[in-house]
UniProtKB/TrEMBL annotation, chain B:
GO molecular function terms noted in the UniProt entry: DNA binding; sigma factor activity
Protein name: RNA polymerase sigma factor
Alphabetical keyword list: DNA-binding, Sigma factor, Transcription, Transcription regulation
BP terms from Gene Ontology: DNA-templated transcription initiation
Sequence ranges assigned to domain RNA polymerase sigma-70 region in this UniProt record: 16-77
TM region positions: none
Top-level taxon in the UniProt lineage: Bacteria
The keyword Transcription regulation belongs to this UniProt entry's keyword annotation: yes
Length: 68, 183
């Protein structure tokens, strides 16, 4: 609606309350989500489910804690 | 045994987000996978400290982040010994489909200091609230807000510069290497 208002010079401008600086109208916000969504969409290597299976088996056999 | 049935499945379901966060932090896919692996092992070991019903993703991100900073301190010592290796590591990104635009964006993101990069990722991409991000990073909400705002301003500046002056990837890697690792 009101997007045509003159822009302040930099990101330092004060924005209205509730105006999300990384929201749908922000180019940085959109690129950020695109970058991140691409990463999330990558195939997950089997090593992680293998690892969790091992951890689960191990802790049902042995409940000693291993803190650090 | 697990704190609750399905703990293992919930951890597995969080892996894509954890990897995305790990890549954003470490700037390297292989290191990111090692980080996720370490975080999962730690999470498993200290699962008694997780309260079912609270935000599991935030809890896991906190663990992964702590792991990242402790590895980074170790690596910093290694890097001082072999400064050639780091440049190679920085360019190990898997080739991704995507516009030059997004590549520029990724490079810009990589130039941010860690604290700003993690703040803008947590808020702008991972979907955490400022309160959750503050808890993950162990700082005040206001600190997260100012980091996000500085990150955003900095990204706008860098992207504008990248468009005008044609820095090659090597020039940028060198800049990153110099600025991050010789301080």
């Amino acid at each position: 609606m009101n997007y045509g208002k003159p822009k302040a010079r930099s990101g330092v401008e004060r924005r209205g309350k509730g105006d999300d600086p990384l929201g749908a109208n922000s180019e940085i916000g959109r690129k950020l989500r695109q970058y991140y969504d691409d990463l999330i969409a990558e195939d997950i290597p089997d090593r992680f489910s293998d690892l969790l299976n091992k951890l689960e088996q191990k802790s049902s056999a042995d409940t000693a804690g291993n803190k650090d | 045994m697990s704190v609750y049935p399905g703990f293992r499945d919930d951890l597995l379901a969080a892996v894509p987000s954890l990897r995305a966060f790990a890549v954003s932090l470490s700037k390297n896919a292989d290191r990111a996978d090692d980080l996720v692996q370490e975080a999962l092992v730690k999470a498993w070991d200290k699962q008694a400290s997780y309260q079912p019903g609270t935000n599991l993703k935030a809890w896991l991100f906190t663990i992964l982040r702590n792991e990242f900073y402790s590895q980074m301190r170790k690596r910093k010592r290694e890097v001082e010994d072999s400064d050639g290796a780091i440049t190679a590591r920085l360019s190990v990104h898997p080739p991704q489909e995507g516009s030059v635009d997004l590549k520029d964006f990724r490079r810009a993101l990589e130039q941010l200091p860690e604290d700003q990069r993690e703040a803008i990722i947590l808020i702008g991409a991972s979907g955490f609230s400022y309160e959750e991000a503050a808890e993950i990073c162990g700082c005040a909400v206001g600190t997260i807000k100012s980091r996000v705002s500085r990150a955003r301003t900095r990204l706008q500046e860098i992207l504008a510069i990248t468009g005008e002056n044609d820095f090659g990837p090597d020039a940028i890697s060198t800049q990153i290497t110099n600025s991050v690792f010789t301080a």
